[in-house]
Amino acid sequence: MKKILVTGGAGFLGSYICEELLKKGHRVTAIDMADGKKIEHLVSDKKFTFIQDSVCDLSLMKHQMKDMDMIFHLAAIADPLKYVTNPLNVMEVDLLAAINIFKIAAENKMKIVFSSTSEVFGRNKDVPWSEDDDRVLGATSINRWCYSTSKAACEHYLFALHKEERVPFIIYRFFNVYGPKLDDLGHGRVVSIFLKQFLNGEDITVHGDGKQTRTFIYVDDAIDAVIKLAFYKKAENQVFNIGTPREYSMYEFAKIMKKVGGFKSKFKFIEHKKVFGKGYEDIPRRVPDTTKVKKCINWRPKISIEEGLKRTIEYYRNRK
């Protein structure tokens, strides 16, 4: 049994990670600014503690990390709209707070499991992206890239921390994880935006011409990889893409969701700048090479896009 801290533990991915860690017998403390509704079913477990507070509170983090064996650092601002409207807050949370947490972890000789993002690859056109492929970003004057840069700087810091102080780490780059308990329906991510519009019977707003592509992985498959890698010694001090290589255009994906849910909504196309303003640039294709994670832990995604969307839609219909 290990004592594990999960920042962002009341969020979408964090709630699933807390649940799996508890199932495996670990003691888990979750820190999050969220209200805890996603983890309310865990609070009766004596091995679980929830603290509603900010990871930017350095004294809190020092106190909570003092006796921990491992930290899963997921807390971050990951809403594209906030990249362009509030980049300073994005960097304060996603970069500065994260590096402070890494320093505390090093002092306490803790293993660090870090949630990065597919955004670090930027607009590299040579897909699929393997973990060591080049990063191609826009100008620093474009706010859209503050999230990608913050996460990439954290990755650099972890590699440096391991090299100079031998702190063990694992980095995950997630490619559009979806499923029940998605954060803030209607905001940020394409699945939540489309889903809210479908459930409310609204027109589906497809950005641009709808030809830009993404890949999607159901949350159960993603968490399976996350937990296996976190406790596998040979996976330490490496980066792993977590996703699937099957890409869908946004228009194609919207049509699949419509069919699976039996929805009646119509589609309308809207320019990116009308949604995000001038400080945003879209990425035409975002596809992971998942060879590395498959070989490392003999992992394969099991849930099809149709089955995953069916489960997600049913969850929200039942809530409604």
Describe this structure in words.
With 320 residues, this protein is α/β, with parallel strands linked by helices. The chain folds into 2 domains: 3-178 and 217-242, Rossmann fold, CATH 3.40.50.720; 190-213 and 247-286 and 304-319, UDP-galactose 4-epimerase, domain 1 (Alpha-Beta Complex). It is 40% helix and 18% strand. The chain contains 11 helices and 13 strands. It has helices spanning 12-23, 58-65, 80-85, 87-107, 146-165, 190-199, 219-230, 250-261, 272-276, 291-297, 305-319, and strands at 3-7, 27-32, 48-52, 70-73, 111-117, 169-174, 177-178, 204-207, 213-215, 217-218, 238-242, 247-249, 267-270. It has a 7-stranded parallel β-sheet, sandwiched between helices. A two-stranded parallel ribbon has the order 7-10. The N and C termini lie far apart (38 Å). The model has no long low-confidence stretch (mean pLDDT 94).
